[in-house]
Amino acid sequence: MSSPIWSSSRKIFIVVIISSMVVAGLVFAYKAPENTSYFIKDLINRKNISAVALGSSSVISLPLDTFEHCPGLVRRGFGGGTLDDLLFYLNFNLLPDSLKLILVYAGENDIVYGKTVDQTISQFKILSSRLAKNFPEAELVILKIKLSPGRSSYHSKMRDLNNSLKLLENDAGVTVVGSELSDYVLPELYLADGIHLVRQGYEVFLKEVTKEC
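Above: the chain sequence. Below: its structure as tokens.
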């Protein structure tokens, strides 16, 4: 029979573990509400995931049917997300290290929230390094920032960021892809908010992106 002291110690240990898990879960969800859902999906579908699209809210509505030659692609987008949010997600993700393709669209919100171009590029370098280390078989494709008509006051910095992103191609395995949306302001390809894309907008946005895993 277990002694009362041991039973009491075990109960305290269990309570501490559960409490720690609850606190960690709350922090995880607070950082970005999508994290909890993505963690569960990564856990359940891990064996079927061969590629991932990471980024801000523009990734959430990325049309998966355009990637018919990459059926294992999943979207991991964060509303209002920044590069910090992507780095935080990578601390807890359960994605397989055998990923073949990683698409990244981020940086737009970083600029809007006050980050400089240099600060944003530094975050991109940290992100690309992490991705290369965690997923050595993956081709990393970074999408240039679109010039959203609803964010015209930031276009100068966004153009500077797009020019600086090309420097990341010096890193092995990194490809930077632009589109008409990163060169021109095309309001007809956006929703009424002037920030998010309509279907035709995604077709232009992804035109030069590989669709194969």
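The radius of gyration is 20 Å.
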